[in-house]
Amino acid sequence: MIVVAGEALVDLVPSPSTADGQLADLMPRLGGGPYNVAIAAGRLGAPVSFLSRVSTDLYGDALVERLHGSAVGTDLVQRGDEPTTLAVVGIGPDGSARYSFYVEGTADRLVADPGALDTDVTAVSFGTLSLVLEPGASAYEAVLRRESARGALTVLDPNIRAALIHDPAAYRARYLSWLPDVGLLKVSVEDARWLADLPEDASEDAVLEVAREWLAAGPAAIVLTRGGDGLAVLTADGEVLRVPPRKVTVVDTIGAGDTVQGALIAWLHQNDALSADAVKALTAERWEEALTYAGNAAAFTCTRAGAEPPYSEELAEFVE
Question: Pairing relation of β-strands 240-243 and 9-14?
């Protein structure tokens, strides 16, 4: 069993049909980084359960219903009468997304530590707002450290939302403290620059130099998402492998990085590689397969509005 831990929220996405000079109508789309990861992994056939606190409001009910429809277990979902977190999304001309968040007093940040997970849990995924907003961040951190010590593969995507990080230096130090307990790190080049306090235009080589320091701190491998340039991995032996993107007509990029993480987890499950030792042992050929699989899934997500990862059958048809 795989557990994905973190927030579920509602993205308010602008309608594409807007008259000049007018604000677009906002369409609710179910999301949240970890929530999208769980949906992607479940739709791709991985046995996955979601750990979070979800509101009992109408949005919360819809979030839980969608988990069920995507074959994601909800035994670890806590419910509360606090409201659902909202994210207002702005879409750029290239389909890129930026976010404004409404998080005060919302359900997901009040998650309680569930205690030790079942012994059949082989991997746990973390990331995004849930590791920033207290008191939930400390609860998720406790799960991260406990499950890592037990031997589960821990997967982290920091998925930085800088507007919500009020003390960047403290967060960067906290991030570094997690690395000894992280089995697989997935991070965008942009987020890596922010985490390393590099200039926004720092080269990919500069990012890789910092990534090598992170690799030495604990992870078995680091997967880099490179936007329109595709995916790369820094393997356990320090080799850098790159896979080009699949070209598609982009509607928006909401959930693309989350789909990469969910698809990677699903691929590792399908290939009996859900452990830090197995990740370290992956050959260049196997990494190319994994990144191609994850990149294709993310490309599919970019062809639809909002975070709508593919089901296994849709992905198979997409890559034919």
Answer: unpaired
Q: Strand 97-102 to strand 26-31: parallel, antiparallel, or no bridges (unpaired)?
A: unpaired
Report the C-alpha gap between 128 and 33 in whole angstroms: 6
Q: Where are the strands (E) in the chain, listed by range?
A: 2-5, 9-14, 26-31, 48-55, 72-73, 77-80, 85-91, 97-102, 123-127, 153-157, 184-188, 221-225, 231-234, 240-243
Query: How many residues comprise the chain?
Result: 320
The owner of tokens 């926004």 is 200
Q: What is the pLDDT of residues 185-241, one digit of tens each?
A: 999 999 999 999 999 999 999 999 999 999 999 999 999 999 889 999 999 999 999
Give the pLDDT confidence score for residue 251 in this predicted structure: 85
Superfamily for 2-16+25-319? Ribokinase (3.40.1190.20)
CA 155 to chain centroid, in Å, comes to 9
CB 5 within 8 A of CB 125: yes
Which token pair is 90?
């702005």
Residue 126 has pLDDT above 90, yes or no: yes
Predicted TM-score of the model (pTM)? 0.93
Q: Residues 6 or more apart from 98 whose CB is under 8 A from it?
A: 89, 90, 92
- Compute the average pLDDT of residues 7-33: 79
Residue 109, C-beta contacts closer than 8 angstroms, at least 6 positions apart: 7, 53, 85, 103, 129, 130, 133, 134, 135, 136, 137
Rounded to an integer, what distance in angstroms lies between the CA atom of residue 80 and that of residue 110? 9
Hey, which residues does 186 pair with through a beta bridge?
223
Listed in sequence order, the residues at least 6 apart from 205 whose beta carbon sits closer than 8 Å to its beta carbon are none
